[in-house]
Specification:
Helix content is 32%, strand content 21%. It has 362 residues and is an alpha/beta fold. The strands form four sheets. It has a seven-stranded parallel β-sheet. α2 packs across α3. The radius of gyration is 20 Å and the shape is globular.
C-alpha cells in the first residue's frame, strides 16, 4: 500500500459513481491508493474499514462531501485515536462539487492541482467499477465543464463561474474509457452542460467519434435546450436526458431562483421528448416555501408529461442521532404519492445540502 492513503467515506448513495475528485487527485499524487468505502457490498465495506484502521502510515486524507461529513469525521476520529502521530485531514482539488454536493475542506486540508485526466485504477473499488462499466450496467462518468452560474437557492453548485474543460482532456479520457476500459455507456455529469451551444456541439462531435451510448444525467437546463443541441446530442448516441424541474409552481420557481419559467421548462421537455428515447425530470418535495398542495400539483403536472420522474426530498436541517448518519425512507408509501400509481415515480429520498450542513442521501 502507498505511504499516502486517500479515503472516500461512505455516502449512503450513488455507489455506481466513483468519487470524481479522488479520480483527479490520485494520479496527481503519483497514483496514491484510494480506499473506497462507498462502493461494494457490506462485507467489502467492512473489510475496507478494517484496512483503514490498521493502516500505519504518515498521512490519511479524506475526500469529504457534505453528505459524508459526519461519517468521515467519525472514521477520522477513530483513526487518530489509534494512530495519534499520523496526519489526518481532508483533500480537495479544483473540482469542488459533484452532483450538487460540495466537497468540504477541513482545517487540515491538502489542496492538490488536479490531473488533466482522472484515473480510477488505484481505487480499491476499481474491479467493481470496471466489471459494471464493461457490462453496461453502470455508465462511465464524464465531466465536460465545471461550474454553474445560475442562482438556484437549494443547490450547492450555484453561482460558480462556468468553464469548459479543455476538449483534448475530454477526448483523451473518452478514448481511455471506450478503447481501454471497454465502457459500454457514458454519463455526462456536468453542473451545467448546455450553457453554451458551441460547447454542446464540440462535445457531441467527440462523443460521436467515440461511438458509445451516453446519457446526460446532470446539468441539462430545460430553458436552454434547443433543437440544434438536442439533434446533435441524439446523433452522437445520447439515449437519455434528465432535466432539473424541481417544481411546476411559477411563484416557487421564482422563490428558489431557478431562473426559468414553467413555460420554458415545458418547451424544453417537448424538445427532449422529440429527440430522445427516454426523458427524466427531477422534482424536489418540500422546498422552502412549498406545501403539500403545491407539491401535489407538481406531481399532477409531472404525471401528465409522459416522463420518468425522480423525486427527492429537501431537508433543511442536519440529521443527527441516526444510525451511521444515514436515514432511510420510502416516499412511495407517503400520502403525497397515494394518487399516483400510474406515474413512474422514483422513490429515492435525497438531502440537498448547503456547504456547511451535514445532510445525507439514501
Amino acid at each position: 500500500m502507498s505511504r499516502l492513503l486517500l479515503v472516500n467515506p461512505p455516502q449512503g448513495s450513488n455507489t455506481d459513481i466513483p468519487n470524481l475528485a479522488l479520480g483527479y487527485i490520485a494520479p496527481a499524487l503519483g497514483g496514491a491508493e484510494v480506499l473506497d468505502l462507498n462502493t461494494g457490498c457490506p462485507h467489502e465495506a467492512a473489510l475496507a474499514t478494517s484496512v483503514l484502521l490498521t493502516y500505519n502510515g504518515p498521512a490519511v486524507y479524506f475526500s469529504v462531501q457534505s453528505r459524508s461529513d459526519l461519517m468521515a469525521r467519525s472514521l477520522a476520529g477513530a483513526y487518530s485515536t489509534l494512530w495519534p502521530l499520523a496526519t489526518v485531514g481532508s483533500c480537495t482539488c479544483g473540482l469542488d462539487v459533484q452532483c450538487s454536493y460540495p466537497f468540504l475542506k477541513w482545517p487540515d486540508n491538502r489542496q492538490v492541482d488536479r490531473a488533466s485526466v482522472p484515473d480510477y485504477s488505484s481505487f480499491t473499488s476499481f474491479p467493481t467499477f470496471l466489471r459494471n462499466w464493461q457490462a453496461g450496467r453502470w455508465p462511465y462518468p464524464l465531466l465536460t465543464s465545471f461550474g454553474c452560474p445560475f442562482q438556484c437557492t437549494y443547490c450547492a453548485a450555484r453561482n460558480r463561474a462556468w468553464k469548459a474543460r479543455p476538449l483534448h482532456e475530454g477526448e483523451t479520457e473518452l478514448r481511455h474509457a471506450v478503447a481501454t476500459l471497454k465502457a459500454r455507456r457514458l454519463a455526462v455529469l456536468d453542473d451545467c452542460f448546455n450553457l453554451r451551444t458551441l460547447h454542446v456541439l464540440s462535445v457531441c462531435r467527440a462523443l460521436r467519434e467515440a461511438k458509445a451510448q451516453w446519457m446526460c444525467t446532470n446539468g441539462l437546463r430545460a430553458d436552454r435546450l434547443t433543437k440544434i443541441q438536442a439533434v446533435a446530442m441524439a446523433d452522437s448516441g445520447c439515449i437519455n436526458v434528465a432535466l432539473g424541474v424541481e417544481t411546476s409552481d411559477p411563484e416557487l420557481l421564482e422563490k428558489i431562483g431557478k431562473g426559468e419559467t414553467i413555460k420554458e421548462i415545458e418547451r424544453g421537455i417537448g424538445i427532449a421528448q422529440a429527440n430522445f428515447p427516454s426523458v427524466t425530470v427531477y422534482l424536489i418535495i418540500g422546498l422552502p416555501g412549498s406545501s403539500y398542495d403545491l407539491d401535489r400539483r407538481t406531481l399532477d403536472w409531472a404525471a401528465k408529461q409522459d416522463v420518468y420522474v425522480h423525486a427527492s426530498m429537501y431537508l433543511d436541517t442536519p440529521l443527527v442521532g441516526l444510525a451511521e448518519g444515514i436515514f432511510e425512507t420510502n416516499i412511495r408509501s407517503s400520502s403525497v404519492y397515494d394518487a399516483y400509481q400510474q406515474a413512474d415515480v422514483c422513490a429515492q429520498a435525497q438531502c440537498l445540502a448547503a456547504p456547511t450542513r451535514n445532510l445525507w442521501q439514501t
